[in-house]
Each structure stands twice: as structure tokens, then as C-alpha cells.
Hints:
Layout: E1 13-17, E2 21-30, E3 33-42, E4 48-49, E5 52-53, H1 56-70, E6 76-80, E7 86-94, H2 102-109, E8 121-130, E9 134-143, H3 144-156, E10 160-165, H4 167-177, E11 186-192, E12 196-203, E13 206-214, E14 222-226, E15 232-236, H5 240-265, E16 274-278, H6 284-294, E17 299-301, H7 319-325
Parallel strand pairs: 1-6, 6-10, 11-16, 16-17
Antiparallel strand pairs: 1-2, 2-3, 4-5, 7-9, 8-9, 11-12, 12-13, 14-15
InterPro entries: FtsA/MreB, PilM
Protein name: Pilus assembly protein PilM
Amino acid sequence: MSPNFFSSKKRVINIIINDHSIRYLELKQANPPIPFKWGERYLPAGIINNGKINDYETLSTILEECINDWKLRNRQVRFLIPESFVIIRKVTIPADVKDDEIKGHLYLELGTSIHLPFDEPVFDAVVVSEDKEKKEILIFAAQEESVKEYSNLLSDNRLKPIEAEISPLAIYRLFYHLNQAKKNEDLLVVQFDLNNVNISIFENQFPIFMHHMPIEFNDSQWGKQLNRSGEYEMTYIGEPDDLVYQFDDIYKEISRLMDFYRYSLHKGQKQVSRILLNGDYPLLAKIKMDLEKRFEVPLETIAYDELVPLEQKLPPTHYLALGLALKGV
């Protein structure tokens, strides 16, 4: 890592754009992870839906305003690829394929021994295990066109995209940097956001599985107001029963995926040992209590507030951006 990485001119901006907001964060130091600056801007409903940009022009105008307000022009930037665009696959390749030749080998196998649900993918790959005969590889893939649309959005607004990532890796990295992760555990990560839930399973610190669930979101059922810190808080003002039914469906899906991991993938020999809950959903504390009652598995949240001084507190909505900022540190 360059010794000048954390100088004021070299800090990389970390931006997360989802269906309802634009967030950014600059990292001040990595150990312990402390941000320098951060910000948030809510988006009108409908501009982005399940990661797909429906109104590029309006989104670009809002992003330009954010960049000017936050003084980010001409900065290098990392960004997250929406989970709805991403798949994770585990594949096996011959052991004699050298590490620097893995991507080329995978490109040759696309459409024959390796099948992805879209054409022209962009992907990354990592070796998770190997023996004399084979290597097990995790592929993180997305449709190139979808990734380029977000990259072009940033470039069109005088930012310089340098890296893209997926949310499970970002939040796990923060979990790891806070010394909350354990080796050889089977961790279920639930990213519970306002418009979607993303569920992933980490095995020996690698995400081997990911499942994305859109949430039906009605903007009229939520009120927004500024708190004393100048940050927006959202309050549910709709019918309580609507949330009960919605949450119950999500909890059933989490249970189904835990059973799938235990019985279908591992024939009852392994099971999820812990759950990590994170997200920007306003009722996350209630969701935490619901999950603790429903599942016997220990449940964790990001313990950032317990490890930093009060004046360096960060809104939990920005934990994902903090994990993204730790990439490469």
C-alpha cells in the first residue's frame, strides 16, 4: 500500500448507491477503522428499482449536486455493485492451471463447463482450496453492461472509478477488522435494507452463497425527519400488520436457506453457527429481537460503537461504506 494513501489528496472516496439513497465515506485510518467524512442523500422513489436505474438523467443530476456539496470532484472512487446483478458460483478447475491464468481459463470455459445466467459477464475469482488434482474457485460475476452503467454514472460526474465490490465482502471485511470474525465458522450474513434483503453464507471466511430478496416498499408509509445530528430518520406510519406479514415471509426465507445449507449442501453434517445482521432498515432493532426469538443460533451485529470514542461514532447506515473503504488496507 502506498504510504501516501491516507493523505488528503490521495484518499479514495467510497460510494454506495441503492434504491433510496446515495452515501459516501472517506477513511481516516484503518486500525481501528475510523472515517474522516461521510454523507447521505435520499433519492425520490422510482429513480432506481431493485438496482436498475430507471431515470439516469435525474440520478445523474442528484449525484452531481452531492459531489459539489461534498467536494468530491475528480476523486478516485470505489462503489458497490447492486446485489440483484451478482451471482456467486463455486467451480472446479484442474490443479495445473496457474493462478495468473485462472481468469483466462474461466473465460474459455464460459458457456461450456461454466454456465452463467447472462452474456458478457465481468467477474473476479479466488482460489478457496486445492489439492494435487483440482482447485476449487469462487466466481463473483455480474453482467458487464449493468456494472458499466454505474461506472459511467460516476465517470460522467467527474469521478474516477477504480474498484467495484459486492456488499457481503464489504460488511464481512469490517466484521473482520473489528475482530468479530472467527475462523472455521459458518456465518449467515443478513443485509436488511429498506428496499431489499441480501442473505449470504460465509464458509471459512469465504462467501459461498448469496440470495437477494426485493422488499415491497411504499414511500407513503414512511415519514422522514431530521434528527439532532442533522441526519434523516425514517419512521413507519403505515399499517403495523403489513410489516408483520412482510417480516414473516423474510424470516421464513432465512430459515429455508439455513436448512438448504445444512441438509442439501452438507447432508446434515454442517449448519450455520452464527448470524450477522446489518442494514439500513429503520426497524433493525425489532428485526434483531425477532431473529433472536426465532432462531437458536447466536446473532451478532457490527460492534463499531463499542470500540471507538463517542465523538467518532458513525451512523450504522454507513457501516457498509466503512467496510468498502477498508478494501485493500
